[in-house]
């Protein structure tokens, strides 16, 4: 009987622990790797191809990168830090047309996200918020979803690179 109680308790404790038991260092490593990957893809694309669209009606290369990094920035600002709006770290009228400005903006957004994660308390990571017309979820869950979105969207730009005769950089894997 005591053995069964302990087994059930060991299963339920992590469910109640929330972000307190969440390995923040793993999250930081994932976001640092994402930063490295996104910046490598920006570096690989020729300046002349920032506005490239493989078909009409889809985002340009620069817009895809902006979609990745601005989503991450918004999630960190709103879900993790509780801000009403994300900070203005660059001018889209500039960085969507200039590769060095796009890279700078992207680096600043990742720096913001990483600093916010590193400084986050367990309570901040556990705090629920609703975004993007979705139900409330904890900040750490929003960060995980945003990270997944980043990898998925970055994968979409591989044809953009290949169609511009660029070999995509090797993707830095977590394993």
Tags for this model:
single chain; 175 residues; mainly alpha; two-stranded antiparallel sheet; 2 strands; 63% helix; globular; disordered N terminus
Topology overview:
Blueprint: H1 2-17, H2 24-44, H3 61-80, H4 92-95, H5 99-119, H6 122-126, E1 128-129, E2 137-138, H7 139-156, H8 158-162
Antiparallel strand pairs: 1-2
Biggest β-sheet, characterized? 2 strands, antiparallel
- State the total count of DSSP E strands: 2
Q: Distance between termini?
A: 40 Å
Total number of helices: 8
Calculate the mean pLDDT score and round it: 89
Class from helix and strand fractions: mainly alpha
Q: Which geometry do the CA atoms define? A: globular
Order of strands in the sheet with the most strands? 1-2
Structure in words:
The chain is mainly α and 175 residues long. Helix content is 63%, strand content 2%. It is built from 8 helices and 2 strands. It has helices spanning 2-17, 24-44, 61-80, 92-95, 99-119, 122-126, 139-156, 158-162, and strands at 128-129, 137-138. The protein has a two-stranded antiparallel sheet. A hairpin with a 7-residue loop joins β1 and β2 (137-138). The longest helix has 21 residues, at 24-44.
Quick summary:
With 175 residues, the protein is an all-alpha fold. 63% of the residues lie in helices and 2% in strands.
């Amino acid at each position: 009987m005591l053995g069964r109680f302990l087994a059930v308790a060991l299963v339920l404790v992590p469910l109640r622990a929330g972000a307190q038991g969440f390995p923040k260092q793993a999250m930081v490593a994932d976001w640092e790797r994402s930063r490295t990957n996104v910046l490598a893809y920006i570096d690989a694309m020729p300046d002349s191809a920032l506005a490239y669209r493989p078909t009409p009606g889809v985002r340009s290369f620069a817009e895809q990168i902006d979609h990745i990094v601005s989503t991450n920035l918004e999630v960190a600002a709103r879900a993790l830090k509780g801000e009403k709006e994300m900070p203005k770290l660059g001018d889209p009228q500039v960085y969507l047309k200039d590769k060095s400005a796009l890279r700078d903006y992207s680096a600043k957004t990742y720096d913001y996200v990483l600093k916010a994660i590193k400084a986050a308390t367990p309570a901040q990571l556990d705090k629920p918020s609703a975004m993007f017309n979705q139900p409330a979820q904890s900040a750490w869950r929003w960060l995980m979803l945003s990270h997944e979105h980043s990898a998925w969207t970055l994968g979409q730009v591989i044809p953009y690179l290949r169609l511009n005769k660029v070999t995509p950089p090797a993707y830095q894997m977590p394993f």
